[in-house]
Amino acid sequence: MMQTHVNSYYAATRNPTSDLPILEELVECDVCVIGAGYTGLSSALFLAEAGYSVTVLEAAKVGFGASGRNGGQLVNSYSRDVDVIEQRYGDKTAQILGSMIFEGADIIRQRIKHYDIKCDYRPGGIFAALNKKQLKGLEEQKSAWERYGNQQLRMLDSADIAREVGSDNYIGGLLDMQGGHVHPLNLALGEAAAIIALGGKIFEQSAAVNISYGEPIVVRTAKGVVKAKYLLIAGNAYLNQDLDPRVTRKSMPCGSQIAVTEPLSAKVAKSLIANNYCVEDCNYLLDYFRLTADNRLLYGGGVVYGAREPDDIEQLILPKILKTFPQLKGVKVDYRWTGNFLLTMSRMPQFGRIEKNAYYMQGYSGHGVTCSHLAGKLISEMIRGDAERFDAFASLPHMPMLGGRTFQAPLTAMGAAYYSLRDRFGI
């Protein structure tokens, strides 16, 4: 069965592209990549630039999963920030991981410029505080990020944030000019085009169904075969659960929902977000929003365990929009969709080896846009013989999700309910 992009704003406004072929032959290459999301695309592009022959297998379409459905925000660091990394893993690990927390966004900007990718990039992101505890946390975050080299940060007081965001919800914030936002599906499509222009091969509707490890590694699809010296598994939340349980048992797919309004007038759009920054609040189960290139409000929020229908999504997100911007009462929602991201127990990304010539990278826990692009650079460094930065992630403990597949969703949902209460009471 052919899989097409979800009915999202991004799919409706994607740049024109041709369908890519289905694998129906034997292909031999240096590196086979499973998954044409950001992790797979970034890896394939770095490797193709280094002269490796690369084949990417995608079960559906380029950017079909989280890479083509996310909020489009370039948020630096990881789902657990450097303060937690310092406490949990020690100074040495924190130093090497901390040195990379702004690199993913830099890679994206370089790709956009070098390959002239039309994806509506805009600089600047705001972390918005709802209470004094969150504002204090942002002051600590600013101090920590400055220690690791980000000098483009500015604290916002109540008057500042009122000028930036037309909402009474926030008492202050932190502006990061090394962040920003993009049209995420067009970014993925642009990276795919760059890979192909460099001689790489991408096959759509070509799910990997079996892997035979060895030298070479043999990956089979329904109609074709790839033989490769190296394999990278980069399917994240959309990876076939039975393909290699050593990878899939370590994490859990979770749903996130987004709604996009009808186009707003330029005056109204500017009154909501004056300088076209993206915004996210500081709750554990955070909400995020930004303007699109055609002056719609794109709003996403929370975490939901299980799929939702479009009507449910609007019922979930529209009240959040109106709580943030009550002046939009009566606004029409034109698009709503859901998608999965991959959650880990530690909330840190999981990079590792499953065989001496086979690797996986996954589990960004909601911080995948930037970190997945960093991941591609690290796997290319490792295959070229410099494993230090890849191994800094690979050395982190990758704990299986509590309760196995049967109980992990309800157990994690209980944790989410606890954090939702903490958000509500500001503790």
TrEMBL record:
The keyword Oxidoreductase applies. The gene is puuB_9. The keyword Methyltransferase does not apply. It comes from the Bacteria. Its EC number is 1.4.3.-. SUPFAM superfamilies: FAD/NAD(P)-binding domain (SSF51905). Residues 30-382 form the FAD dependent oxidoreductase domain. GO terms for molecular function: oxidoreductase activity. It holds the Pfam family DAO. Keywords: Oxidoreductase. GO terms for cellular component: cytoplasm. This is Gamma-glutamylputrescine oxidoreductase.
